[in-house]
Design brief:
There is one protein chain. This protein is of the alpha/beta class. It has four helices and eight strands, in the order βαβαββαβββαβ. The protein has one domain: Rossmann fold (3-Layer(aba) Sandwich). The strands form two sheets. Strands 3-2-4-5-6 form a five-stranded parallel sheet, with helices on both faces. A three-stranded antiparallel sheet has the order 1-8-7.
Length: 177
C-alpha cells in the first residue's frame, strides 16, 4: 500500500495488543470461563485475529480453546469474492458458545454470511461476534458483542487492518477510498 494513500493511523501495534487483551478478557468474563467455548475466525485477517485471541484466552484459562477458520464466500448474498481460504473447523459446534472473529465490522453482511456458514455445520448454543474495528454503516441489524475500537468513518473511506502474519506489521489505518 502506498504511504500517500494513508489518511490516518488509528491503531498501532501496542494499541492492537491492548485491544486483543481486552476482547479476550471480555469473552472470558461474559462466558464465565472457557467451558464449551470455541473461536471461529473469518478469512483472512479475522483468522489471524482469532488465533491471537484464542491463544490469549488459552493462556489465561490454562486450556486450549477449539479454534477454527471459516471461508464465508459460499454464504455471501452478493457477487463479491473475498480472499478466502479453506474452511478449517475440525470440531463439533453443536451446543457450544461460538465467537465469530472478524477484523472490521461494516455493513453486517459478512457476519450474516458467517452465521449462515456456522448454522450449516451445527446448532450452537450461542453465537457471539467480536471485531477489532466497528466502523458503523450497518445494512443489517447486527452488532458486535466485543469491539476493539469504534471508528466512525465516511462511506468513501476504507479501513485497512494489517497484521505481522499477513502484512509485516501490526496497525490499523484509514485510507481514502
Amino acid at each position: 500500500m502506498a504511504e500517500c494513500s494513508v489518511k490516518a493511523e488509528i491503531l498501532d501495534e501496542a494499541a492492537i495488543t491492548r485491544a486483543i487483551t481486552r476482547i479476550s478478557f471480555e469473552i472470558i468474563e461474559r462466558n464465565k470461563g472457557a467451558e464449551d467455548l470455541c473461536i471461529i475466525g473469518l478469512f483472512s485477517r479475522g483468522a489471524v485475529l482469532a488465533k491471537r485471541i484464542s491463544a490469549k484466552i488459552a493462556a489465561n484459562e490454562g486450556r486450549e480453546i477449539p479454534t477454527g477458520l471459516l471461508d464465508i464466500t459460499p454464504y455471501r448474498d452478493d457477487e463479491r469474492r473475498g480472499v478466502g481460504g479453506e474452511t478449517q473447523i475440525d470440531f463439533d459446534i453443536t451446543d457450544k458458545r461460538v465467537v465469530i472473529i472478524d477484523d472490521v465490522l461494516f455493513t453486517g453482511r459478512t457476519a450474516r454470511a458467517a452465521i449462515d456458514g456456522l448454522l450449516s455445520r451445527g446448532r450452537p448454543k450461542m453465537i457471539q461476534l467480536a471485531a477489532l474495528v466497528d466502523r458503523g454503516h450497518r445494512e443489517l441489524p447486527i452488532r458486535a458483542d466485543y469491539i476493539g475500537k469504534n471508528l466512525p468513518t465516511s462511506s468513501g473511506e476504507k479501513v485497512k487492518v494489517m497484521f505481522k502474519e499477513t502484512d509485516g506489521c501490526d496497525k490499523v489505518v484509514i485510507v481514502n477510498g
